[in-house]
Specification:
InterPro entries (chains A, B, C, D): Glyas_Bleomycin-R_OHBP_Dase, Glyas_Fos-R_dOase_dom, GlyoxalaseI/FosfomycinResist, VOC_core
Structural class of chain A: alpha/beta
Distance between the termini of chain A: 29 Å
Largest interface: A-B, 47 and 46 residues
Oligomer: homotetramer
Radius of gyration of chain A: 19 Å
Pfam family, one (chains A, B, C, D): Glyoxalase
Strand content of chain A: 25-35%
Helix content of chain A: 10-25%
Number of domains of chain A: 1
GO molecular function (chains A, B, C, D): dioxygenase activity
Organism (chains A, B, C, D): Geodermatophilus siccatus
Largest sheet of chain A: 9 strands, mixed
Shape of chain A: globular
Protein name (chains A, B, C, D): Catechol 2,3-dioxygenase
Order of helices and strands of chain A: EHEEEEHEEEEHEEEEHEEEEHH
CATH architecture of chain A: Roll
Strand order of the largest sheet of chain A: 14-15-16-13-9-12-11-10-17
Chain lengths: 334, 334, 334, 334
């Protein structure tokens, strides 16, 4: 039986961008995040409701893509237990200093090669006077700037073999598989896993190029669906590229808007209403090809780029492309 | 250290009503619940997103008030461990058959005398054809009738000594104390505790009458704050008594509407937006008298009946009233 | 100069359906209208905020499509003046009895052949006891059933030559042309006209089949965009066909959802937020082909059926089809 | 019969403030208006959806209060006709230059002494490049800053005798009286009048001090009720004083939030959903004392300051106070 409740939640994610200043502008003026510091090529940003110091670490880099994804353990013992299991799995890298404000971090990779950090010690965020919230049960003042997203919600990785990564998350880290897509030939094309009562925290989607270690998107939660409609209005005004949405996913029923930040990474604004997964014996919902062919919840067909755009971009000569025959549901993965 | 993650969530609650038919009408036509069955004096009802069979068990009774509050354990081992601890605490009653669709239930009381049931085995709800949802990751079709609340959210008990019950929830059941009110003399006037990533599942509020075992309210979650505004419109049209709201609590930041069902029990419709408590080392937020004197988040003063109305009603001659001196924040507990 | 403020508003519309019972079910259970009476093959229905007796007159008919569209004059003198102008235009038919609850109605057609009725005398709706609203400034109790749309909002006609109908509405009836689409060759492909501070009441869109007298859609207003998102959830649950949306039109900025009622007629649920046209010298906004090629406000491409589905259906052999060369913006009219 | 449709809409209002800089900060950072210019002691500001240049003219002044309230005529002839009627009424002052961007303005007062300006000529607003909207049917880019209110909505004047001012608006300017409060002794305590399809543009409320020429509040419209809830969150964060709300008025059913700007003037954020007054023969809704005693739509009791706070403040020695006997509904006027 998998170990449950050893990972508390998805924590700050390192994003790479070839246009750091423009990306910082996007995260602060469009999404409404706050810069909390910088060091070398890195700029640290946070949403107003994350209790730790950092939600996103933006790093100047020749390409777009995702760097280290951090997870917080539920306690020091849970951290030790997970590190032992990760080492046993052969994916461990070793202990490193955490980002500023974070304690020792155990670095590892998922089977696809995405880098992760696992830690427990964390300084809670202390806002400066001008960002102090009016209500003491809130981390930081509500910014009322741009989309003003509440918190980092989830990360969606592209991967060569979602099933292997799904099993790693479940068996080594203790995630629950809440939903997945299974093709007619049995292949798992995508899997949604959760460490919390949210219905998903990490997702693996098959990379049609066969590449490893890429990012599909990171997502931020808003309080309402209306917040996302307004975020679409703001994207239009600010010249932020809208890829698709707003609409409602059939899978997980998430209300979504997908945009690209200037560095090229896809960013989702998402809202689940009050939907939670509270059942300890949740039954994985498996979607078939036929079911996925129906499109999104209200009938929107999935946009083509949703299946072709990942970061960093890959030169297709170097990639192992999945043929159409191998990817029959290309038109409607989510 | 308290045991964490042994209780999965608050489950169905038994409510007593002297006017069963009218109460059923309220729960189905105003809140939008569905009747799933009845047995003797009991009618079973469910919200559209609860995955188990029952959200509320309405029971004909000479008075209003709360009967058994059920909790689901996270697994059979967790159930066994908690039963042992409850027995050790001296509050155990014993094993009983569960409600229809539920397995063996261990009955106990909190120190205040409210009855609880703890179980693990549970049949998942299977909707009849006419209530089958269009999306397979949903328990039941959305009713589009009345307020159409999503799920049971929390229960707020009145109790003679909140601190004792708070400690029982924390030390015996493994709840986390997310927020509380502490008077200047050190008394805990109210405490919010959670088993999940929701910021509270059960609450204890000091009963000004000094009575034991009473109910302050049960609450149902909606997806948006707008749903609650509309629920207020509908209450007005249907003649449902609105006690206070809609407004936003400072404590927990819950957007709320309080109404009375015809039997006299207070029912809250609540929305937390996307606020969750994800920190494994959450620091209990303690509100002082001075802070509470500011009223609700946006300044609404708490309505008097919020401090005097509990169910069942008590004859004050039989109660041990708290004097004004003992209850200096009577005007603004939430 | 055109006569202004002689038409008060768009009033009840007669819709034809080959499946009357199913259409009544759709209007009452999905949209939330109330049946107020029936006579022969006609069923009268109303939204909760229309102050007159009827919003929609559903009529059993071999095909779908639109019958008489009614307009209320601002007064008896305005009615007389408009009738004279209509007669002078050669489109008059003559005086007839109005529908039950309505006074003498002058029947005429637009240049495309759609039938209209113009009247002034109207009994205000008096709700029966069970539908009496709690607030006396409201026509009828809020139904809290299905989408619960507030009022009839606008009608969109298909027509062979939108420009001719636009000019008729403007010059004979006194409408203001708020927005329009002009193709590169100068053709007006669609025109939005208003009698009120709403930004449009009647619309003419070019019928690609070259047919006359057909309907593109009728629309009902909701209070919020969230109401429309919820209406999409309900459509999914009730098996109502969603053609496209929810999304936001670039033209008029209307937030929309398009569904088909069982008879085949397209119905829009729409919301304009608090957008009004208050300028007495409003400057018609003219959209070019290049601008329309950008799709809807947030980038949604217009669904193909939006350009091919009108009611009643036409046998293309009998129609005068517009060639692709003549209709270069077929992919993105709205 | 009163002249209808000669006034197009309420236009820009001059507000006086003893703390000009702080008031500008409130209007730009909290409400989200844009400064378009300044001249001497005046700063001109606009909302993003007003099509003219100015929504509010803030003027440095020893006290708070309202200066000139502008109305736009529907055309040059309507302007001439209204000026003749105003002169005939004895309330005319004479022609003056308008504010920058506005043509000749006829200045007059209402019977209570509030100053008005009536004009027709108006330059439409042309945004600079950085404020250009993405959609050409919008006046200015959506600011996404603070509450981002859409447009000036209405003005509520305090007056010694509402009925006299009501009749002036109706008989001289052509307003329609949509709702009013009539005390048991026949006195009109408040009257709501409209020039448009909005259910009110100007309101007169009895000044309990007996003073003349004071302001109760000015109001700005948002697109949704949720926008107003969020505006309350932002007020809390920014230290803006919330007087009452959010809640729903029974009269006019307006969803409201009342705050004070730093100069002391009361400002309302309001939303009517899609409620419009379309009936040309609208029947004035008259509320009785008994009906008003029920409080607001969902039961909120009116806050005391709602009846005592007006601008500029008056020294009560100089005022003619209304006695309690004369003002039996003091606790619940709206």
């Amino acid at each position: 039986m998998p170990p449950m409740h050893e990972i508390a939640h998805l924590a700050h994610v390192e994003l790479r961008t070839p246009v750091l200043d423009q990306s910082v502008e996007f995260f602060t003026q469009y999404l409404g995040l706050t810069v909390t510091g910088s060091a070398g090529d890195a700029v640290y940003l946070r949403t107003w409701d994350d209790y730790e110091n950092v939600s996103i670490k933006l790093v100047a880099h020749p390409t777009s893509g995702v760097g280290r994804t951090n997870l917080r353990a539920t306690g020091p013992d849970a951290l030790d237990r997970r590190v032992k299991e990760i080492e046993a799995s052969g994916h461990g890298v070793g202990w490193q200093d955490g980002d500023p404000g974070y304690g020792p971090t155990y670095v590892f990779t998922d089977p696809d090669g995405h880098e992760f950090g696992l830690y427990y010690e964390s300084e809670w965020y202390t806002p400066p006077a001008e960002l102090r919230p009016s209500l003491k049960n809130q981390a930081q003042a509500y910014p009322a700037r741009g989309a003003s997203v509440r918190r980092l919600d989830h990360i969606n990785f592209l991967g060569a073999e979602p099933v292997v990564n799904r099993d790693f998350m479940r068996d080594v880290l203790g995630a629950m598989v809440s939903e997945q897509i299974q093709l007619d030939d049995g292949t798992i094309a995508a899997a949604w896993t959760t460490f919390t009562n949210k219905s998903y925290d990490t997702v693996y989607t098959r990379d049609w190029t066969g590449s490893r270690g890429r990012l599909h998107h990171i997502a931020f939660a808003t309080d309402t669906r209306e917040d996302i409609l307004r975020a679409a209005d703001i994207a239009l005004e600010q010249g932020v590229f809208i890829e698709t949405g707003p609409h409602k996913h059939a899978i997980q029923q998430t209300f979504f808007l997908y945009v690209y930040e200037p560095g090229g990474n896809r960013v989702e604004l998402c809202n689940a209403g009050s939907r939670l997964v509270l059942a300890p014996d949740w039954r994985t919902v498996t979607w078939t090809e036929a079911e996925r062919a129906k499109g999104q919840a209200w009938g929107l067909q999935t946009i083509e780029s949703f299946h072709t755009h990942g970061t960093p971009p890959v030169a297709l000569d170097d990639a192992e492309p999945v043929t159409v025959e191998q990817d029959p549901i290309e038109g409607s993965v989510w």
